[in-house]
Amino acid sequence: MTRDKSERHGQTATESDVTHRLESVLDLTGFQRDVLLVIVDSDETWPSGAAITRSFERIWHTEINRSRVYQNLDKLQEQGFVTTYPIDGRTKGYSLTDHGENAMLAYRRWMLSCLSNDHADATASGT
Q: If you average pLDDT over each of 14-18, 71-75, 121-125, which comes out highest?
């Protein structure tokens, strides 16, 4: 993923910008966040909905309802997290927008902060 535009231009994002990005990704369902991660993790530049579904099936070792994937991709596009690119007449490829990347980066920072705090607390208590 790329860094925030302001960070790429030598400026740091304000705390309220980061908070807004984190709040926007926390408003998503867990499945929607997983969809964003699968898109980022894809070997394809513009993975199709079918490729995203296959990735979930490979990761979760179970069949995934394709309509569930497509409905969530549509919601993520409406909310500005993903964009589409026509691959052929019917097939669309998906990629994260700058908003989607920045929101996931904020989410990653928050998760790492939580994990490092838990680790520090566990280490301090001897567990």
A: 71-75
- Per residue in 16-39, pLDDT tens? 677 788 888 999 999 999 999 999
Domain positions in the chain are 16-125
CA distance 91 to 50: 9
Which residues are CB-contacts of 64 (< 8 A; sequence separation ≥ 6)?
53, 56, 57
Over residues 69-75, mean pLDDT: 98
Tell me if 47 sits within 8 A of 93, measured CB to CB: yes
Residue whose structure tokens are 């979930």: 56
Q: To the nearest whole number, what is the mean pLDDT of the chain?
A: 85
Which of the 8 DSSP states describes residue 80? T
Rounded to whole angstroms, the Cα distance separating 65 from 125 reads 44
CATH fold of 16-125, please?
Arc Repressor Mutant, subunit A (1.10.10)
